[in-house]
Amino acid sequence: xxxxxxITNPDYQxxxxxxxxxxxxxxxxxxxxxxxxxxxxxTARTVTDPALKARALAAAAEAAARVGDRQRAVMxxxxxxxxxxxxxxxxxxxxxxxxxxxxxQAIQIARQAVEILEPCSQTSSWIETMIALTxxAARVGDxxxxxxxxxxxxxxxSEEALAAAELVLAxxxxxxxxxxxxxQAKNIAGFSPQLHNGERALTSLAAAA
Length: 209
Fold this sequence. Notes:
It contains 12 helices and no strands. By secondary structure, the chain is mainly alpha-helical. The longest helix is centred in the N-terminal third of the chain and has 17 residues, at 10-26. The chain is globular.
């Protein structure tokens, strides 16, 4: 933490302190984690450059989620002006909640992120965020929604994001969920390249878990 605070660039300091806060929460130091998370938020609010501020607030939202402050995490994520980064921040918060077993809240926030993404162009960051949301939906057991999200991803540039999703479900998935994902993927007929890529996404997830 002391090293992170020595960083003079507010953007880099926020990113570093957010990691510190998450590590403290993970290793059983909730009070210290919350204190650092609050500092992350305060520092993020001092950033004036719009792009840097968006990233800083996203880091603050993640830090708040990891210390269990869901409402503050969502509030920080929604305060971001950039739509893609806002969706990315909400997806991160949803992912953290799903890892902590807060399934209802996780899928609710995931759906909010998807609503923001739907009208946007499918950039590389869009695809990465949608894959993260697909993994979150699968992790909380909403397989129909996971399948729908996977089908929405265009073919170009998705392989790397799919590999990341495989790792997530391999760590957090279950045999029953994997079998159900595989069954639903096999039931899809008449693939376009886009649908086929979505099926490959969920088949890969099933195989990895």
